[in-house]
Amino acid sequence: MNTDRRGLKSTLLLLWAAFMLGGCGGAVSQQYRPQGKVEQFSNTDWSTVLHKVVTSDGWVQWQYLMSNDAGVRDALFRYVGLVGEVSPDNRSDLFKSDDDKLAYYINAYNAICMYAVVKRNYPGNVLLSGGLPGSIFLVDKFPVGGQSMSLDTLEKKKVRSVGDPRVHFALNCSSRSCPKLLNEPYEGSKLDQQLSDQGRKFLSDPYGAVRDGDKVKISEIFKFYTDDFLSGYEKKTGHRPAGLLQAIELYAAPGSPVIGAKSYTFMSYEWSRNTPL
Which one of 48, 132, 216, 245 is separated from 120 by 20 to 30 angstroms, measured CA to CA? Predict the structure, then answer.
């Protein structure tokens, strides 16, 4: 979740605070880390978490993590421990294709963000947790393949850098306005389909787009990442879009509220934790 999505600027004060305060993130305890050399990267523990805690409509049942029901919190910690040990950067042999690598980083972001919320004791407002706006995303640091980085860095350097705006439909910051979590991991073998499906869902979701006559209200995600969607359209079609609506229509289902809209406004982003209504 980068500074644009939060609607915040990376000021010198924030950088100073990040340096001075550190964060409550970091590696999980030794008991959750892989024992010995990792021979194969597996999403099994992450799959267990998603199937247990994510509802059919994409909300997170945090009470199962709180109580460690059926060991689901342990599974999350083991997966974050695995992510901390290996990545496409330090174990390229485990990730054969570019889609395998991107799927890894999307899963890593979503799992680490969920882990950060657990470590922050399940804040009601994810953005304001930690005493400094954006602490979970900017201040807390986590190992990813042996490198310590924030969620902001993970998003910018490893996910957005691929140049596919559909990743914004897959990243989940544990907040109500975020595109919903899948109840299965992203997999390189079907990543293209998963990203396209997520785009169609989000642009038909009340948190993604709501029609109001000839106007459509759209998520602030499209404000935070306007340039990503404009350049993504040009990359895919070979010409510039007439505007943001044309750029995002590319990812919408036929019945989406954005189809045929003449103008748009942005909805305010809700940073409350993504619990079921």
Answer: 48
